[in-house]
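Fold it.
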Amino acid sequence: MGGLIVAAPSSGSGKTTVTLGLLRALSRKGVPVRAAKSGPDYIDPRFHEAACGQPCVNLDAWAMSEDRLRSLAAGGGLLVIEGAMGLFDGAPPDGRGATADLARLLDLPVVLVVDASRMAQSIGPLVAGFARHDPRVKVAGVILNKVGSERHARMLRRAVEAVGLPVLGLLGRSGDLAHPSRHLGLVQAGERPDLDAFLDAAADRIEAGLDLDALVALGAGTRLGPGPRCPSVAPPAQRIAIARDEAFAFAYPHLLSDWRAQGAELAFFSPLADEAVPEVDLVILPGGYPELHAGRIAGASVFMQSLRSPSQASDIYGECGGYMVLGDSLVDAEGVTHGMAGLLSLETSFATRRLHLGYREVDALGGPFPGRWTAHEFHYATTVRAEGPPLFRARDAEGTQLPPMGLRRGRVSGSFAHLIDRVDGQVATPRLTVGS
């Protein structure tokens, strides 16, 4: 089989619910199906995995090379890619990295999910504009979401079919499949005790409202051949310990796969469970939601003591939330100050939130990830104090020079940047010795 892309004219149209219901419905029918998410996203892929029982990869057309994208997309079964934002929305100034870029590169059909709740005949020119905007982006059909009545459905269907596009399904208005969310997006999949029930309910709606056979045939008419040999990022150390729990959940699977494939030994531990840091060459504290668990993290004495221990000879690296935990203190949304690890001269706060969002290109000035990287920044934390040499030089998606990012102090380093891939097409030199 090949694949298809679930996209929309804008955010909030319902493509996540459609994607999850489609993945669960197809897997229940025995169709070999797997998932991918367009762009930088840590949360949706875990829902995708729960829906179909297969690993989900990120396909980031801004941050990854064509070879990397083709390699990650290759595989058996039907690949269902969930788009991000609107179909043609990407990074400034020209929309690079949009879902449409994946459609062009992988030559996959696009199924457009449209929120029809406030439209009737006007849906015709809307979908016609998306279908004709770029002939290299093949809009192959439409799913009408939030349809109000049979009469409404008939008007919508006639308008869409009049411009030459098939209607692949209709879904009524329903509030029972809403996702709880917080400031970085949806509540994480692992935090929903009702997740299976939610996914089954979404699949029931999809089975009732969509033409599953037509969707499978649409994807089966494409081919995702064996991926090209992609230069992979070498491991930053031989033995790597990675924090993993509800507070530290944001690590990209493609990087971990790269490291494992080249012989690195990966171990996982939970700061929230107050587990000691394993004896390794490099400790990584990924991003996540430490601000929601700051009291538990501050009180995790075994974890904190092992992280600070003079006998802990490993390098230590933190991304975003992990970076904040390496600092002196973190102020939560209620204004309560929590003592953190004290390994970097850093104070951060959520008492006054400010959105920091965008792609970054960073050059390492030290730390365990040398070279030039694509990255992204997405957080609401305010830096109250940061003292010390920076970790990265940084530019935004338009190439504008930004203030240096992050901090270094001896064997400890970190920043708010989430690293995605090497930008120079070369593997990093493995750092298999202790120290920095």
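The longest strand covers residues 139-147.
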